[in-house]
Amino acid sequence: MRAVKFALRTLFRTPFVTSVAILSLGLGIGANTAIFSLFNQLLLRPLPVPAPGELVNLGAPGIKNGSTSCGLAGNCDVVFSYPMFRDLEREQKALTGIAAHRLFSANIGYRQQTIAEDAVAVSGSYFNVLGLQPVVGRLITSADDQAVGESPVAVLSYDYWQRRFNGDPAIVGDALVVNGQSLQVIGVVASGFDGTTAGVRPKVYVPITLRTKLEAPFNGYADRDNYWAYLFGRLKPGVTIEQAKASLDGPYRSIVTQVELPQQTGLSDADKARYAAKEIAVEDGRRGQSRVYEGTRTSLMLLLAVTTVVLLIACANIANLLLVRGAGRGAEMAVRLSIGASRGQLIRQLLLESCLLALMGGVAGLLFSRLTMAFILAMLSTSAANTVAFQMNWVVLAFSAGLSVLTGLLFGIFPAIHSTRPDLTSTLKSQAGQPSGAKTVQRFRASLATIQIALSMGLLTSAGLFAKSLVNVSRVDLGVEIDQVVTFRINPRRNGYTPERALALLEQAEEELRRQPGVRSAAAARVPLLADSNSSQTITVEGFTPAPGGNSNSNVNEVSPGYFQTIGVPLLAGRDFTEADRQGAPLVAIVNEAFTRKFNLGQNPVGRRMRRGGTRPGSPAQPLNVEIVGLARDAKYSSVRADVPPVFFTPYRQSTQNNALAFYALISTPTEDFLPSISTLMRRLDPNLPVDALRTMLQQVRENVAGDRFVSVLSASFAGLATLLAAIGLYGVLAYTVAQRTREFGLRMALGAPPSRVRSLVLRQVMWMTVIGGVIGLTAAIWLVRLSASLLFRMESYDPFVLSASTIALTLVALGAGLVPALRASRIDPMTALRYE
């Protein structure tokens, strides 16, 4: 304790140096802590369930000859058919159980208030396999999923129970209306559990056998060619993942070859062989199942590397500060050595001071990390921001504390060793001249400054590349009008509407929207524009035969008349849809230019015919019952970054589904004044029907490119901080060098050297450090960005403009940092310098 008190007194004896060090470390540690918090939540943290390391995810890669539906829980290689799930559940021997789940969107009504939320359909084994217990009531069990469409029960998430129902246990036994179906609440799941899919927090859990009612008209329970269920299990004690895969492969292959393969029609011999060779995939499931892991790993790894570099630059600055302070404490160290203190004791004392300094920086870092996290959350997409939070749990605290101690040792070890050199006792005999080892310190400090320049150059170049990538994304020709367009979505089927009632409401909403003051045109579409939503289908087109290995798939959207006018997409040939294009009328379609190129329809496809669905060999020919009546100019479909896909559009009034629609209004009034009128309009039509994703198309596009903005803005911010810290470090090195060379510069000027010659000596040192550091930094930046090339848009990692701009920027910063010491050196009075020290 006495050593700690002495260390604190020593630190605060130089408050300016200590404050600068704490601030620098706080910025570096805070940035690392904030990024690590995200990293931990999305890529490291296991599910909050007992023994998460025993969980395994199952996958079904390989050919799927039928209907496939996948979502945020994983790509389409992962999903299984429902019959296969039940077969594996019954036949497997290596797992304590297998569970199935499927996310869906729900309109949840309670006491005349309906809100759009996320929900998940789960098998009766779901909570049992996870090992979870209820807070109140009970959870869904195998008794609740025995028959399709029965057991209308629901379990609430803990957070939803607290937020909407104030944690009232009396909700158990009460009823919720979920997508128009009355479900009895039977329990609340344990606190902290938010499902098994990162990126979404379901509020309600329902039996998987209710999907036929909650997502009508779904009825794919008996179809082995309908793949939609995600599966996971828990290993039995002593069973490894490899053993589980070997055990599951037997029944899986048997079912594939003996049950499913004979039912397949239209497959070539090669496809049959591929189908029969399918193997089940078994992977670590401790983090659950989610596409978020793949989508965020590269960007978070990159940002964690960037913040580490910022911290290293801050450490180099602190090391320089401690060396300067150590030079001033030379006499103290010499006296303590001369009266019997061991060198080890002094090193431990100096390292204690460094670690205390680092811990104070770590405390400041926790404050800066909160500010950084708030900045990060402001840039994330809405879904991502709702998924993550800055959580000061023991993992984050341990990381911050460990990082603080490590940095304390990192920047303190060399100054401690150098300051306690035994030959420092020479300072007791003479205070004139430079102390022993000064040249070593000078070389070390110059090396630190060069490394800082290299690191800063690497960050500046990386940030420049990502910034230009973001500029490229923002300059993409979307092919649609977004400046004065607002959008929102409704789904009446989730409120129990029949298809006929849903169609009537959707048509009424469209008509009422057109009548709103300030609306120039309005329309609706099944697939929302630039919202990362896709719908595709195999089709048959007149005169087109796919090449070997090719396909006849196309994206599809169902739209209303006036859709193309509202979003600013011109028709290049043919006509738009009309009110007469509804059920009972001849089927029609409008295609885009990418569609005509893929299916070889020439310049004008109007009049050509097509059909939904493919053609299987040996099957009787089906009539081409859809006529192409229009050609639309290419426009972005689901993503700003993705190329325009082939799309065919059909009138939504000719559909029998009538589920959700996204509405669009081209307005002439300010959007902030118009948006509230949408909620008013929908409350008038149905006060219990939630309005979802109400925003401007500008906001929608920003949401679509949130990932690009996230990486670009953060890398630029951290690069700017790193460059500032490097400039401070470079200034400190040069200022100290000038002070140490005062006699030399004074003697040169006394012998006739002009001030410009002295300035050039200092600036030459700046030049060499900048050249060496710049070359190293550029090389490292190009290598680093190549590893994350998927984050760049329409550019290479060696973009000459960015490399040149980064070089010029860092050169100017380095010259600016060296100019003041150079001017100070050139103004030294020779007589004063000769009497120096």
Helices and strands: which structural class?
alpha+beta
Shape: globular
Distance between the termini: 38 Å
Unreliable segments of 5+ consecutive residues: 428-436
Total number of helices: 25
Q: If strands are numbered along the chain, what order do they take across the biggest sheet?
A: 4-5-10-7-9-8
Number of strands: 23
**Major β-sheet, in short?**
6 strands, mixed, barrel
- Beta-strand proportion: 15-25%
Helix content, binned percent:
40-55%
Rg over alpha carbons: 34 Å
Question: What's the mean pLDDT score?
Answer: 85
Notes on the structure:
By secondary structure, the chain is an alpha+beta fold. The chain contains 25 helices and 23 strands. β4 (95-110) and β5 form a beta hairpin. α9 (292-328) runs parallel beside α13 and α9 runs antiparallel to α15 (438-474). The two termini are 38 Å apart. Residues 428-436 have low confidence and may be disordered.
Question: What can be said about this structure in brief?
Answer:
By secondary structure, the chain is of the alpha+beta class.
SSE blueprint:
Layout: H1 2-11, H2 15-44, E1 55-59, E2 67-68, E3 80-81, H3 82-91, E4 95-110, E5 113-122, H4 126-130, E6 134-137, E7 153-156, H5 158-165, E8 175-178, E9 181-189, E10 204-207, H6 211-214, E11 226-235, H7 241-260, H8 269-276, E12 281-284, H9 292-328, H10 330-338, H11 343-379, H12 382-387, H13 394-419, H14 426-429, H15 438-474, E13 485-490, H16 499-515, E14 519-525, E15 536-541, E16 553-559, H17 563-566, E17 571-574, E18 587-592, H18 593-598, E19 609-612, E20 626-632, E21 647-651, E22 661-667, H19 671-685, E23 692-696, H20 697-704, H21 706-740, H22 742-750, H23 755-787, H24 800-826, H25 830-834
Parallel strand pairs: 2-11, 5-10, 7-9, 16-21, 18-20
Antiparallel strand pairs: 1-11, 1-12, 3-11, 4-5, 4-8, 4-11, 6-9, 7-10, 8-9, 13-22, 13-23, 14-22, 15-16, 15-19, 17-20, 18-21, 19-20
Helix pairs in contact: 1-11, 2-9, 2-11, 2-13, 3-7, 9-13, 9-15, 9-21, 11-13, 15-21, 15-23, 15-24, 16-19, 21-24, 23-24
